Task: structure prediction
Amino acid sequence: MRFSNINNLLWILSFFVLSLFGYMVYSNYSLDKAARYHNSVHSLELYSKEFDNFLLTQNKFINYDIINKKIEKFENNLEFLSSQNSIKLFPAKYAQLIKNIKKSFNDKEEIIEHFKSNNAQLLYSMHYLFDLTKVISKESNTTIAKNVKNVELNLLKFYINPTTDTRNITDKIAFLENLKQHNETLKYFLVHSKLTLHKIIQFHIMKTKQKENKLQKNILALDAFLTNYYEQNIYVIKIVIFFFVVTVISIILLLIFTNKKVEYMAYHDSLTKLANRTNIELYLQERIEKFNQETSKIAVLFIDLDRFKNINDTLGHHIGDALLQEVASRIQTILDPTDILARVGGDEFMIISEKRINLFSPDKLSQNILELFIQPLKVQGHTLSVTMSIGVSIAPDDEIDAAALLKFADIAMYEAKESGKNRYRFYKERLSILANDRLEIEQSLIHSLHNGEFFMMYQPKYDIKTQKTIGLEALVRWQNPKLGFVSPDKFIPVTEEMGLIIELGLFIFRQACQDFIEFEKHSPHLKSISINVSAIQFYEENFIEKISKIIEETGISISKIKIEITETHIMKNIEHSMEILQKLKTKGFEISIDDFGTGHSSLSYLKLFPINELKVDKSFIDDIPQDGSSVAIVDTVITLSKHMGYVNVAEGIETKEQNDFLLSLGCEVGQGYYFSKPLKANDLIAFLDKE
Ligand code: C2E
Ligand code: CA
Ligand code: CA
Result:
């Protein structure tokens, strides 16, 4: 998953969590509300029961204040329940239920009022009977008094307790009626007793009717509704809490994962998934601290692909990237599980290989890696040959310090590059070269020029179409009595460091000019002599004056001379180079850019330089026509040269195949062993004569 996707996911999850949280707050609020409603409903239930108790049991000793207060409280609760619904917390059914309760409560209230007035009347009757009883017991005989008292007491009993047997009362009334010796008071008493009995019966009937209780039913319905609502909400909220927890955990996990990923990205190369520089340096540091110097060794291999930039420039970055992945996985196939491969830069890899001394062979490892790439790579339809330069440093032999080992491996890698690429070099080896070879060369060079140890050879440059020599490149040779023949690749850098190159350069220049005047006589096609100029000469103050003087003295035509300067040198100091090139050009020299393609020059700069010729570096010619990227580069340079009006030269042509292929690409001038090796002056004259 890509980073941005994770971030998006995090946003979505956070939004989700917030929504869930919001919902939980809302639910909590509504449940809280529902709970409070529920409490109110329970109060209603209690009050309603009290109303019934009141109606059923309270007879004689009525305190209407209490019931009135309860009615008031009931009303308040009902008011609360109906008013709070203005926020529409509950569905419409709720309002209906409240309405039902209100209606049955009104009925109940009416009954209570009815009860009150009935009760008042009954009490009044009871008092009246009591008064009559008192009077009768004073003025009548004991039998009558006893019976009257009995009726009065039983009525009171009946009033209080509806289950009382009323036959006793009716019997006594009948008995009293049959006595026929009534006075007025007794008559009143009998009429009133009967009336009261009837009223009490009616009263009790009215109370029993209340057993069918609508109010209670409606309240219970509301109760059930709220319970249901509560339970449903609790269920939903449980689900919501579940999701909330899951999402929060996901967010936490994702954050940990992203953090891991950041960590991973910081220590890993995203393209090859190999360790990156930071990672491998830390690893090396750790190994250096821990390894046992007596029994083990650690090799640091610094690997740099040769001319990778050209692949990137000509075939595009996606091919370059794919190539790097291929290279990484190919190298990985021959590594031991304990060897660590890292990508430490654009086209740079590093291997840390720690082994017991008897198994330690970094030379074999390096050689194996180089051999891995003899077979070209197939990358997205392109066949690309890849070579690399490897530098090796070893702990504890070279150093027991991570930073130093890395630096040494790097230096050794440059040595490998300098000495022709596609090879490996040990840091130690470099030291010995520096210490021995180089010292010897330096000492031998001191008197070499005066001893006449240098001489010139000339290599023909030919027209690829006509296969005729049209130019020459002057190449210096050194034959030392003690060292024998030393390659210019080895001694030129030393002369540069010694400053000897200035004097040697003038010798070469003079010799080449003199010889060329001679050669011209032997060939009608010969147009120019190319002379290599080192950067040290090039930037020397009086360089132009000095060579101008030689030209005057030798009498060569200035336009016949091509100054060859390497692309790398020009690019080192663009402004200064430009100034000198401009001066040379004004003087009438031709200018050739040597080893083109190795110096990473940008084409936009190239346009600015006053140049006449581009020499495609030999390393590209080596790989054509098999290697796609080399073909692409050579093709591009040829096209570019034509476009800009430069002569294009392919150097190092060794086979007919290369020659023919270059011809097909439209290349104009060639140089190489295929046509001719560099020749001594005499041999060249013979060669020209033969033409
Ligand atoms: P360069 O200027 O690139 O010269 C071309 C080198 O490629 C020469 O090597 C030449 O002999 C070699 N060569 C030509 N055709 C072929 C071929 O088909 N196959 C192979 N394998 N090699 C081929 P050389 O003469 O050893 O010179 C090496 C380098 O030394 C030159 O590279 C140049 O940078 C430097 N050098 C040589 N002569 C002079 C000189 O007179 N002055 C200066 N400043 N540098 C020189
Ligand atoms: Ca050259
Ligand atoms: Ca060259």
